[in-house]
Design a protein that fits this description.
single chain; alpha/beta
Length: 175
């Protein structure tokens, strides 16, 4: 038994996720330039292999990301991010329909489409809601009935680079 672990549940769109132990989240990056090269699954074949491997290893939740926040990564349009997420969602939903899916985005319109049209269960916002003011508006007004929102906290602030973001410490130095 884990000390200080208090079980709880999350009501998802069509099921309840019982969190009575730590969960294994399988990270699926549908981008060609993720910071961790082994996680890159850009085509359908590599996606299917990655999902099959993660299911056999006991994944509890999938997290699909389509916008690399790696230093120096290229900017990706919302349309391209959605196209990539759709490909990932289709493979995961087809191969592991009973496993909850989180999508990793900081854009409210991308989150809305993934929740309302693709069936995402959780939105994982790496900006903590600071890069798109509409994210909080959307979740406050619409999404709480069917989706959970993870606002990732960061001690650094974002600063522009090729991809539009760069982590910067409080003293202006890069971590």
């Amino acid at each position: 038994m884990m000390l200080n672990f208090k079980p709880f549940t999350l009501s998802l769109r069509d099921r309840t996720l019982v969190l009575d132990r730590p969960q294994i989240m399988g990270i699926v990056n549908v981008t060609p330039d993720s910071f961790y090269s082994a996680s890159r699954t850009f085509d359908v074949d590599s996606l299917e292999k990655k999902v099959e491997q993660m299911v056999s290893e006991g994944v509890d939740i999938f997290d699909i990301g389509a916008y690399s926040t790696r230093q120096g990564a290229d900017d990706v349009s919302p349309e391209e991010e959605l196209r990539r997420l759709q490909r990932g969602m289709e493979v995961v939903k087809r191969m592991a329909p009973n496993i909850p899916v989180s999508i990793d985005t900081f854009r409210a319109n991308v989150a809305r489409t993934c929740v309302e049209e693709m069936g995402a269960d959780i939105v994982n916002d790496v900006s903590g809601g600071t890069l798109d003011a509409d994210m909080a508006v959307y979740f406050d007004a619409h999404a709480w009935h069917s989706c959970h929102y993870a606002a990732v906290h960061r001690l650094s602030r974002w600063r522009g680079c090729r991809c539009g973001w760069r982590l910067e410490g409080e003293d202006g130095a890069l971590p």
